[in-house]
């Protein structure tokens, strides 16, 4: 399994903008950066290859990764257009998505315990979202996963319709080689059509809605503490 981490953004919501603050992935909690925590957890669950898409203060992130003691092989892809939508960052990793490997997609700005990823990796579902049922329907910033009849039927911040259950997506997704390749193709479509200002979740949503309902499943992580 290969992991792709998106770590290119500035983090305006957290810092208010500007370029004097560290990247979100280098923020420290308990004396350890998010990046260091990510790499330790990836090593624990058996992921040996990590690609990090960087942009804002890319050199700082690369130096921090090189000084980490984990045995996760790490490569970097530079997104020069990191001020555009996150579609561009995901698109920069399209060759990894097309590598015929199982892919773990992950955001860099999440603080969580290793159990969250262990539950995702242990799921028998090849294409699997983490799912936290503790979301409010009117939380406009949360990316929501909606279920009906046991199937995933919606994936977005702004939702409408009737659903059996709604949960928040903590930012981790496991993909089969087939679906990862399909996602790369869809990212190509977004960039080629000038829709690079969109969040990458829109491309994921397209694939979710195009494939049969039983293609995707969830790993329920409700009760496991995490924060974005």
Mean pLDDT: 93
**Major sheet description:** 7 strands, mixed
Our measurement of the CA-to-CA distance between the termini, rounded to an integer number of angstroms, reads: 24 Å
Strand content: 15-25%
Structural class determined from secondary elements: alpha/beta
| CA-atom Rg in angstroms | 17 Å
Number of helices: 8
List the quaternary state of the chains: single chain
Helix content, binned percent = 25-40%
Total strands: 12
Structural commentary:
This protein has a seven-stranded mixed sheet, with helices on both faces. It has a three-stranded antiparallel sheet with strand order 9-8-10. It has a two-stranded antiparallel sheet with strand order 2-3. Helix 7 (177-192) crosses helix 8. It is globular and about 50 Å long. It is α/β, with parallel strands linked by helices and 228 residues long. The mean pLDDT is 93. The protein is built from eight helices and twelve strands. Helix 3 links the parallel strand 4 (49-54) and strand 5.
